[in-house]
Amino acid sequence: YFVSPEQFKENTVEISGEDARHISKVMRGKTGDKLIVSDGISRETLVEIIAIEAGAVTAAIVEQLEMTHEPALKVTIAQSLPKGDKMETVIQKCTEIGAVSFVPFISARTIVQYDAKKESKRLERWNKISKEAAEQSHRNTVPEVLQPLTWKQLLPTFESYDAVYFCYEKEEGLQLRDALRPFMQTLRSDRAPSVLLLVGPEGGFSEEECRQAEEAGAASVGLGRRILRCETAGMVALACILYESGEMG
Ligand code: SAM
């Protein structure tokens, strides 16, 4: 369960709201049961339930655990907003695989509309899906789903990453694997490097967007000879990146 740092008291942790209800009603938790809680930043802690009600669980701290389930490479998925509930699939699956954050964006061929003022509920729902997937897959941190950006807003953010890969099915030269191998050689053990992975919408990226992305520092890369659905491409590329970095078992 993820708890905010304020929920940690000196020797106990207070769990409330939906998580407390989940522990008492769904998991049928009782005093003496052990749980793992995380502050989502740096602490993972083994705790033991000492008091339980539907809306509040108090647990005593047993021991601090090692943060063992986070990848050594920080991959952010920038996904041009797909139709229907496909963004939810991307968030759920990529959280399980090991993405650290998500940046939905609107590009030239994005079909769906997104009005930030009217759609805060959607962003809330995406973050809830990320939290549930993080719990399910025993992540130590919850990947954040950021407010959707326009293409113009996204381009200048490239410079804050160590590498940016623009997934482009029309790329005839560089394949992701070829781009990754030299990048992996530059990795140092004292700092987790950051990678931004860009995936287009149902209709793909335009040539103009490819040019702009390259100008902003991205490498245009192919993911093999088959065309993947927009909700599949991020999962595949993420798994390949983490595999190359030695993260996938
Ligand atoms: N029309 C299908 C759909 O509705 O999902 C396929 C869309 S594909 C054009 C969507 C995005 O996935 C592309 O913009 C690209 O980022 C990524 N993609 C899919 N297949 C790829 C490949 N073989 N190489 C690189 N990127 C790929």
From TrEMBL:
Coiled coil: none annotated. Residues 71-241 form the Ribosomal RNA small subunit methyltransferase E methyltransferase domain. It comes from the Bacteria. Its EC number is 2.1.1.193. One of its GO terms (biological process) is rRNA base methylation. Pfam families: Methyltrans_RNA (PF04452), PUA_4 (PF20260). Keywords: Cytoplasm, Methyltransferase, rRNA processing, S-adenosyl-L-methionine, Transferase. Its main location: cytoplasm. Residues 15-61 form the Ribosomal RNA small subunit methyltransferase E PUA-like domain. GO terms for cellular component: cytoplasm. It catalyses: uridine(1498) in 16S rRNA + S-adenosyl-L-methionine = N(3)-methyluridine(1498) in 16S rRNA + S-adenosyl-L-homocysteine + H(+). SUPFAM superfamilies: alpha/beta knot, PUA domain-like. It is found in: Cytoplasm. GO terms for molecular function: rRNA (uridine-N3-)-methyltransferase activity. Belongs to the RNA methyltransferase RsmE family. Specifically methylates the N3 position of the uracil ring of uridine 1498 (m3U1498) in 16S rRNA. Acts on the fully assembled 30S ribosomal subunit. This is Ribosomal RNA small subunit methyltransferase E. It comes from Paenibacillus dendrobii. The lineage of its organism: Bacteria, Bacillati, Bacillota, Bacilli, Bacillales.
